[in-house]
Write a structure and sequence with these properties.
The chain is α+β, with helices and mostly antiparallel strands. It is built from 7 helices and 8 strands, in the order αααββααβββαβββα.
């Protein structure tokens, strides 16, 4: 800690991070041990966070992340979209296909940013806000492969006809972005994805990840 920072705020944020990393919640004693502070301090932190709906406690006294975090999370997508757009524009223009950034939203894949090429005669219409199951389409499959540790070289996923008849997709996961699961990909009207597209998608995913760190 430095003179310019708040110790109380720092502890509160550390509580949220600890709770976000567990599915079963933490007790006051467990939080006290992990933070290295006494139980009274933890009680005060939790009470304050509860007032803002950022933390909830169950009947057994275990603290979990509260629904108030979702309201804050909704403001993340515009920031992520803005950071990703330069790489997506470059990808769309280079490949001549619709480029997109897709993030995990619950059990679904959600397209949060889409860029269509400006010079092609035709391309796949794709819109921000489009949702689909994580296990269908290149975007979701790339995310699942990264989550399961099953993504192998060359680092991207290819699909055909899973979301739209006649359309093929390529996607690569975002790597090294804390607290964010997502992928960058392209979708095109083709029977197969050209060989150069996969590596280019991996490069774009790397650019987006760098912009979000």
């Amino acid at each position: 800690m430095t003179a310019e920072t708040s110790q109380t705020l720092d502890r509160g944020l550390r509580v949220l991070k600890l709770l976000a990393d567990t599915d079963h919640g933490l007790t006051v004693t467990e939080l006290s041990n992990r933070l290295g502070v006494n139980r009274t301090v933890v009680y005060r932190l939790l009470a304050t966070l509860e007032q803002h709906a950022l933390v909830r406690r169950d009947l057994g006294g275990r603290a979990r992340v509260g629904l108030g975090v979702l309201r804050l999370g909704r403001q993340v997508h515009p920031l992520v979209r803005e950071a990703a757009l330069p790489a997506l524009r470059s990808l769309a223009e280079d490949i001549g296909a619709t480029a997109h950034l897709t993030l995990v939203d619950g059990t679904e894949a959600l397209a949060v940013a889409v860029v269509e090429p400006t010079w092609t005669d035709y391309h796949v219409a794709y819109r921000a806000g489009f949702r689909h199951p994580l296990d269908r389409g290149a975007a979701g499959r790339a995310i699942l492969a990264a989550r399961q540790g099953s993504l192998i070289e060359p680092g991207y996923t290819l699909t055909h006809g899973e979301l739209e008849a006649g359309a093929s997709g390529a996607a690569a996961p975002l790597v090294g972005v804390t607290g964010l699961e997502g992928s960058v990909g392209v979708v095109m009207l083709a029977d197969a994805v050209p060989e150069r597209v996969g590596p280019r998608v991996v490069d774009a995913a790397r650019e987006v990840a760098d912009a979000l760190r």
